[in-house]
């Protein structure tokens, strides 16, 4: 089924949250899983799967160990890209931008 642009929410974060909910309702295994790509200080890219914990107007939230390779990459080069893919709903979403650590309370 083709995507009807007229039905999309103008706020991409609202639309992403809806698509995650749609994937969950469709029974997709791990609807909040996405591939996260970062680059180390030399520009060498790395990609791995992580789990979305929240999405809002400020962006995507996920947990990571700040001392892991992923955490070190994001501290040294605070840009990342992500892709969600849901086979059951035949949808995917690409995201890219600046990353920033949250304080421990968040």
Please provide a written account of the structure:
The protein is α+β, with helices and mostly antiparallel strands and 106 residues long. Helices cover 21% and strands 37% of the residues. It contains 2 helices and 5 strands. It has helices at residues 12-25, 69-76; strands spanning 33-39, 45-56, 59-62, 79-86, 91-98. A 5-stranded antiparallel sheet has the order 3-2-1-4-5. The radius of gyration is 15 Å and the shape is elongated. The mean pLDDT is 92.
Kindly summarize this structure in a few lines.
21% of the residues lie in helices and 37% in strands.
Q: What features would you highlight for this structure?
A:
single chain, alpha+beta, five-stranded antiparallel β-sheet, 5 strands
SSE arrangement:
Layout: H1 12-25, E1 33-39, E2 45-56, E3 59-62, H2 69-76, E4 79-86, E5 91-98
Antiparallel strand pairs: 1-2, 1-4, 2-3, 4-5
Indicate the percent of residues in helices. Answer: 10-25%
Number of helices: 2
Average per-residue pLDDT, rounded, comes to: 92
- As a whole number of angstroms, the C-alpha radius of gyration is 15 Å
User: How many strands in all?
Assistant: 5
Shape: elongated
Structural class comes to alpha+beta
Q: Multimeric state of these chains?
A: single chain
| Distance, first to last CA | 38 Å
Strand order of the biggest β-sheet: 3-2-1-4-5
The major β-sheet equals: 5 strands, antiparallel
- Which regions have little confidence, pLDDT < 50, spanning 5+ residues? none
Give the topology string: H per helix, E per strand.
Answer: HEEEHEE
Q: What share of the residues does DSSP label as strand, in percent?
A: 35-45%
């Amino acid at each position: 089924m083709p995507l009807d642009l007229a039905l999309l929410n103008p706020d991409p974060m609202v639309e992403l949250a809806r698509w995650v909910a749609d994937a969950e309702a469709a029974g997709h295994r791990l609807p909040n899983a996405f591939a996260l790509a970062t680059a180390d200080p030399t520009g060498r890219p790395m990609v791995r799967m992580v789990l979305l914990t929240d999405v809002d107007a400020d962006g995507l939230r996920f947990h990571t160990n700040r001392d892991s390779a992923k955490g070190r990459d994001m501290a040294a080069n605070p840009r990342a890209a992500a892709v969600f893919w849901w086979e059951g709903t035949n949808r995917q979403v690409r995201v890219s931008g600046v990353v920033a650590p949250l304080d421990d309370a968040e």
